[in-house]
Design a protein that fits this description.
The structure is a single chain. Helix content is 35%, strand content 18%. The chain is of the alpha/beta class and 283 residues long. It folds into two domains: 79 residues, no CATH class; 181 residues, 3-Layer(aba) Sandwich (Rossmann fold), CATH 3.40.50.300. The strands form two sheets. The chain has a five-stranded mixed beta sheet. A five-stranded parallel beta sheet has the order 7-8-6-9-10, sandwiched between helices. α2 packs across α9 and α4 crosses α8.
Amino acid sequence: MAGGARKTKSDCQKSPWRVFGEGLEGVRECYISSYNMQILVIMQLQVRIRTSCAKLLAPPVGVASRCCTMRGGSRQGGNKIIFYLMNVFIYGVPGSGKTTLAKALSSALNIEYFEADLIRRDAQKEKTLENEPFFFLPTTEAYKGIGERTQRNVIDGMLNVRLAFKDSIDKYLFTHSRDIIIESAFLDPGNLKNKGIVILLTISAETKHKKQFLVHRTIESFSNGQFENARMIQNYFISEASRLNIPIIDNDEDIESLIERVKMILEQVQASSPEPHSSGKMK
């Protein structure tokens, strides 16, 4: 509306948008009636993004919390059909095959693909390598922002890269209202596990990992310790995923088999999600 005025009840009756009351600013409920069916879509819109804002808004009363994170089809309650938004996050060390799997999964599920590395450029604005190194250093070299190359510094460096981009990832999710598959080496599973389905992709075969690691790197990656750092970080990822109950898939099969394994995980999560509660049937 002009001047940013708040919509009234009469305005909402003329529009597919119905604005919720106090305490739910920025969350809107869209009803589209067709053939006696009501489609409910929860979208995060007009959210005030701040550096300290990292939590998803709770869904309105009567809508299951999974509605903000799942889809995988629909569930019927009377003559109301509720569709779920589904975010899929794939993370792993460089060379594990994240991009290949994410793109193939995007095509198989007809869901948009996004490489989180693309947010680096925006996040790096008005920053310098000297003052904020973790916005510029790759995960396998982030220890340089701390000190010497030790196992502890390699892991802490990677964790600092995660922290550096956490707000940028959250901002993208807050302003993105469609299903999305996101992959990156710096995704934080602890931050994202309640915002979608998180999957760790590993690559246990060292020979295969070396070959894939070189796709976007030079042979010097082995002499300067980057590859060894990636293997150390992967061990940390595996331990972390086990602690957080994050599904782990090892890249030891062809891409079609990997896609099927991901689909099984999505189906299992969908089957274990609670049934949404309806506030009433459409008249």
